[in-house]
Specification:
The chain is mostly helical and 378 residues long. It contains 15 helices and no strands. It is 75% helix and 0% strand.
Length: 378
């Protein structure tokens, strides 16, 4: 039977034939694929038939060859389907090497579509994806060390640069591995979990160190998509919800930002020379808020901090408190503007009085008036 390659019983001869026929799978048409699917399905049925293996055992006894002991039957059963699937495994390996993702899908979907024992597929996929598994584990280990070396004063651009490099390193490898190990049964699934763990650590750093909740949300979502195990996906989905709450809180704070339109109009009406006085007053009003913000500092983290775990009721209370504080500051600004206007009126009145006094002594440099001099002569 021929389905793109010769099916030869002797392993060495068959393997040599496969090597010589490299590239032949690129010319297979739908008829070849149909025949090969039929053949593999029949082999799977034979492998599960006890009568078939009893007949094989009977034939081995009849041969009575010391080179073919009866115990060999177990080895034959274990290797039977592996021999059948090896042509497709070889095609997958070559397709990955040549970056032909379309052909990789063809052969992978064919194998994953049969009821093959998971041990057969696991061994085959581990062999094909050996380079991919080792590469992911190496990148995860190296990047994990870089994350552990982040200091309190590490700049945001450096952290984002390490994340960007790691993401670029694993992106294509994860994509290719997913084309092969569709059902996550090989060691490649464990490597994917390692990648997801590193991405989660980046999300924590960005969330707690820089409070960039939007970017943190993007990274933790990427980690969920990369995770292979159900347990890890469920665990990271809780982290997604925590970061989402932090993002909602941050957006709510932006909407409740201080300095309303009325307060802006008041500030515009104040003359420039009044800011000398107003600067010190306004500074004293906001000094408490500034001191609170400057007192926060980063500490080593293993999880998301309080901003992501606050309840909705606590967030609403905080928003109302900020709104009340803004209203109080606006009222104080209005009082300050009224006081400044009052001082302006007093200064205008004082200026008028000064001008009146100056006008009374306008002629003081030209001598004493005659009526005053007459009084002295008396």
């Amino acid at each position: 039977m021929k389905c793109g390659v010769n099916l030869i019983t002797q392993k060495s001869e068959r393997k040599e034939k496969v090597i010589k026929s490299r590239g032949s799978d690129s010319a297979l048409n739908e008829s070849h694929w149909k025949n090969w699917r039929f053949a593999v399905s029949k082999f799977v049925i034979l492998n599960s038939s006890e009568y078939f293996w009893l007949e094989v055992s009977r034939m081995i006894k009849n041969i009575n060859d010391p080179r073919l002991p009866e115990s060999r039957i177990n080895d034959l059963k274990n290797e039977f389907l592996l021999e059948v699937t090896e042509p497709n495994l070889e095609f997958i390996s070559r397709a990955l090497s040549s970056k032909d993702h379309e052909r990789t899908k063809w052969h992978s979907n064919l194998l994953n579509g049969f009821s093959l024992p998971s041990s057969i597929l696991k061994d085959g996929f581990n062999k094909i994806l050996g380079y991919h598994i080792d590469s992911l584990n190496k990148y995860c280990a190296d990047t994990g060390k870089e994350i552990s070396r982040f200091k309190d004063d590490t700049e945001k651009d450096l952290v984002f640069g390490v994340y960007s490099r790691f993401s670029d390193q694993v992106k294509d490898i994860v994509y290719e591995g997913n084309l092969v190990d569709i059902n996550c049964i090989s060691d490649f699934a464990l490597a994917r979990d390692n990648v997801a763990g590193v991405l989660r650590n980046f999300s924590v750093e960005v969330h707690n160190r820089f409070h960039d909740y939007k970017k943190s949300y993007e990274i933790i979502t990427e980690a969920v998509e990369c995770a292979a195990s159900t347990y890890l996906k469920q665990r990271f989905e809780k982290d997604v919800e925590a970061v989402r709450r932090s993002l909602v809180t941050a957006e709510a704070h932006k909407e409740q930002a201080p300095t309303s339109k009325g307060a802006k109009d008041i500030l515009k009406s104040i003359p420039w020379w009044v800011w000398v006085i107003g600067f010190f007053v306004v500074t004293s009003l906001f000094s408490n808020n500034n001191s609170t913000k400057s007192s926060s500092s980063y500490t080593p983290l293993t999880s998301y901090k309080s901003s992501g775990s606050a309840s909705l009721s606590a967030l609403k209370t905080r928003i109302m408190a900020l709104k009340s504080s803004v209203e109080n500051k606006e009222a104080q600004l209005k009082d300050l503007a009224a006081q400044i206007k009052s001082k302006e009126s007093e200064m205008a009145s004082l200026k008028s009085s000064i001008e009146s006094v100056e006008s009374q002594y306008k002629y003081s440099t030209y001598g004493v008036p005659s009526d005053v001099e007459a009084d002295y002569n008396v």
